[in-house]
Amino acid sequence: MQPKDLLQLTEQFGSPIYVYDAEKIKSQYNRLTKAFSKVDNLRINYAMKALSNVAILQLLREMGSGLDTVSIQEVLLGLHAGYAPEKIFYTPNGVSLEEIEEVNAMGVQINIDNLSILEQFGAKHPNVPVCIRINPHVMAGGNTNISVGHIDSKFGISIHQLPHLVRIVENTKMNIVGIHMHTGSDILDIEVFLYAAEILFDAAKNFKNLEFLDFGSGFKVPYKKDDIETDIEELGKKLSKRFNAFCKEYGKELTLIFEPGKFLVSEAGSFLVKVNVIKQTTSTVFAGVDSGFNHLIRPMLYGSQHQIDNISNPKGKERFYSVVGYICETDTFANNRRIPEIKEGDILSFRNAGAYCYSMASNYNSRYRPAEVLWMNGQGYLIRAHETFEDLLKNQIPLPIEATV
């Protein structure tokens, strides 16, 4: 997408607004499948927690993607978007047995990540095909909040509990069809990923009826110019060779599954805001915009850096600005960042706004959530309307008159 296209969309739909480039999503999907083209049975399950708009789900469904879901609500959205139940993978954490049973009744593949639920479910439903999530105790990820495979993580069944796990499966006669792991997000070193994969291969040898191995995801995408990213092509070459060799050892052709979220949609997204005010203090120049961490929380939550472009004045002289939002507490998108000269009324574009931006948005300060637009075939399609005051009131129930007297 060109800056002129983004400016035109803000004129058409207003600001703030999220815009997603369909072609970038498609190219990332194709890049991943090409990297693992040497694997006969490859399945991509989009991790929809990154961006769960139904139009995005439909786009990926048409490309052949399945879904990775983490809640019953995501499962329902996936079914609503036209996915067959067998194309949906359900990996919850800390949910009740009742929710897992409800999802199972929908025909979705379930993935269990703790011994207690595994034993309870296996005792009641021994014939249901189940996947098991293993915690390989491998530290990976760009932030402690998104590193989920380490020894203190709440996710997965510890690899050190494998004997206990096997005993539960033998006692319940459960039907284990898959083994799963996910070490974390923003993985830089593919050798760490390959090391964790070896742990998964070793664990898989304990189960004789597997149909697939799920390696999760967590591939790092670039957030700024010359930023480091996961070398998908090298990972594809090395892991494909090792996976194919394991299938021969195992005596059966298995399916290799990945569940990318950020990798597919992050770079496709732009978040567009309007500059409300330029405020000079004794030490800082603030550019205050018509948004806040209620719409883009990642810089405040993770310390993440999103490149900010002044698309109204892209060739202007660069100056230092702190870009801040309108939320009534510290609300900083960028500190002391070099950006082409900003004036009130300019449109700023935040890159990498496709993943964990709208999906983590809120109505904090009673602000509305923005619209979402899909840019496809040179045209902008409104895929979620801007919220209104009626949306804030929709589920609120006022006190009856007699209770206020």
Automatic annotation (TrEMBL):
Domain Orn/DAP/Arg decarboxylase 2 C-terminal positions: 18-354
Residues at which pyridoxal 5'-phosphate binds: G218, Y356
E.C. number: 4.1.1.20
Gene Ontology BP annotations: lysine biosynthetic process via diaminopimelate
GO MF annotation, one: pyridoxal phosphate binding
Family matches, as CDD domains: PLPDE_III_DapDC
Family: Belongs to the Orn/Lys/Arg decarboxylase class-II family. LysA subfamily.
Location of the active site: C328 (proton donor)
Known role: Specifically catalyzes the decarboxylation of meso-diaminopimelate (meso-DAP) to L-lysine.
Gene3D superfamilies assigned to the protein according to its UniProt record, in alphabetical order: Alanine racemase (3.20.20.10), Lyase, Ornithine Decarboxylase, Chain A, domain 1 (2.40.37.10)
HAMAP family given in the database record: LysA (MF_02120)
Gene expressing this chain: lysA
Residues where N6-(pyridoxal phosphate)lysine is found: K49
PROSITE patterns registered for this protein in UniProt: ODR_DC_2_1 (PS00878)
Reactions catalysed according to its record: meso-2,6-diaminopimelate + H(+) = L-lysine + CO2
Keywords, alphabetical: Amino-acid biosynthesis, Decarboxylase, Lyase, Lysine biosynthesis, Pyridoxal phosphate
Name this polypeptide is given: Diaminopimelate decarboxylase
Enzyme class per UniProt: lyase
Claim: Transmembrane helix is one of the keywords in the record: no
Entry superkingdom: Bacteria
Subunit structure: Homodimer.
Protein's pathway: Amino-acid biosynthesis; L-lysine biosynthesis via DAP pathway; L-lysine from DL-2,6-diaminopimelate: step 1/1
